[in-house]
Amino acid sequence: MTLLMDVLPEQLGDWTDVLSGNRYLWQSGQLKPGHLSTVKGHLVLLAEQLHKSALQQSLQELDAAGINVEISGMKRVAERDVLSLRLSDWSLELKARLQQVANGWDLACVPALPDGHQPGLVLMDMDSTAIQIECIDEIARLAGVGDEVAAVTRAAMEGALPFSESLRRRVKALAGADAAIIEQVIASMPLMPGLITLVEGLKAMGWKVALASGGFTPFTGYLRQTLALDADFANTLEIKNGRFSGDVLGDIVDAEAKARILVELAERYDIPLSQTVAIGDGANDLLMLAQAGLGVALHAKPLVQEQAPVCLNQLSLEGVLGLLQAG
């Protein structure tokens, strides 16, 4: 049955029954039953509530680029609307054009998506990704050197300062402070919205979940234990006589280390890289995002917004679950 865009409901959430079990090709303002013979790209639109205008504006860009479109599904995932489209072609230019018209919704325009029905791995950053704070900034604030450390953190996350250098400078500023501050920060550490929903959803799908952080082991360890994560990787603060020495022990978990950890975990769990997802917000996450089958920037810094494969700005971590269940 051919569907006319003009008469379909304004809220895409009301399309669920219409699209259930059916696929439609977009042709001349109409949705006609059928499917693409060749799929070279995927477009997923996400929002708390998707309006028809989001689809219409996206279709205008796709039409202008000469892309054939199959609307393959509408779902409600984690109380968010998720619309899936398959594309006859894909390019970075197309992704950029679609991103420019996105006003009030998130999108992923990618050559391929991980299959949520198959085993997979999600590796995420911790600070400003799994949690809403930068732990070292909170430690520094309680130690009385907050402004000094926060300025270095900003420079590192924006890519203006090498991460390893920035970390050593920030930790050096903590020298002599009472290490009991760690427990104070853990006690008030705010989780990122959607984190529990994402982790529970991934576990239900049989996926592995881990943290790779440029932060510190007490915090990643707490999250691993509390959320029953599969692994965590972070830096070790040296503590002497109950106080920070100002040094970091061992190798620093920087951008290269995060990308390497993703590959090593995928090998450990026998998961193809195409079935991996990386989530982060800072410049030191970019290599990890590029290495993964799907790289997702969450409320990210401008540099990361420019380079990340997918950016979530409207939704939070529950949006990642929507992307994995889009198919």
From TrEMBL:
Its EC number is 3.1.3.3. It is an enzyme of class 3 (hydrolase). Keywords: Amino-acid biosynthesis, Hydrolase, Magnesium, Metal-binding, Serine biosynthesis. It catalyses: O-phospho-L-serine + H2O = L-serine + phosphate; O-phospho-D-serine + H2O = D-serine + phosphate. It comes from the Bacteria. Coiled coil: none annotated. The keyword Lipid metabolism does not apply. This is Phosphoserine phosphatase. InterPro entries: HAD-like_SerB, HAD-like_sf, HAD_sf, PSP. It comes from Oceanisphaera marina. Pathway: Amino-acid biosynthesis; L-serine biosynthesis; L-serine from 3-phospho-D-glycerate: step 3/3. Its cofactor is Mg(2+). The keyword Hydrolase applies. Belongs to the HAD-like hydrolase superfamily. SerB family. SUPFAM superfamilies: HAD-like. It holds the Pfam family Hydrolase.
